[in-house]
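We read letters as residues; the fold follows as tokens. A sample entry reads:
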Amino acid sequence: MLSILVVVLLSYLIGAIPSSLWIGKSFFKIDIREHGSGNAGATNTFRILGWKAGTVVLICDFGKGLLCTTVISQLAWSIGDGPAVLYSGWEPEAMILIFAGVAAVAGHMFPVYSNFCGGKGAATACGMLYGIEPVSISISLAIFLIVMFSTRYVSLASIISTLIYPFSQLILRYGFNWDIDGSIILFSSVLSLAIVIKHKGNIKRLLEGTENRVQSFKPAKGRLSQEKGGES
């Protein structure tokens, strides 16, 4: 049990690193939560600080999830007695990856370093899922980029790519005999549903035609007080 607790705690602390907040304060002298959508995520960073800062935040948030599933999760096998005996009937490695990834996403959404006020977890979840199964998430990532750059709605891109993700895994497993553990598919489905529910405000604004687009990939400057819109 010690191994599980250590992995979960470390993953949470890494996921909780508020990259958008720290970059905004360090290089732009602003609190990203006080501008745009008020969300401490990559979308608001793109909108307020421009594409360079937004890209750095996106990579950092993606990297947190990837690091926890590919590196931190492996500590479980060297601490204590290992987790295998705890999950009779389950694939232990898949479960450890899921525990580490979920902790990272929870850390991003509720970061201890910034009063538990974080982002919506899409970028960190993407990195976490890439560490678990890279092919299907790569498909979703490509769809995300296509939708984002063609519509400039980051929220719409997040929702569509999230919904497609578990279906990609099902097609890979049953259509191409890809070796994807059933627990991972189940987890992906639940996670996708949770992320879509988290975007319910964005969905409402999209249907009403009031959702904000990313107007420019340059720093916002005069747009720092624009009304709240989509988040990720």
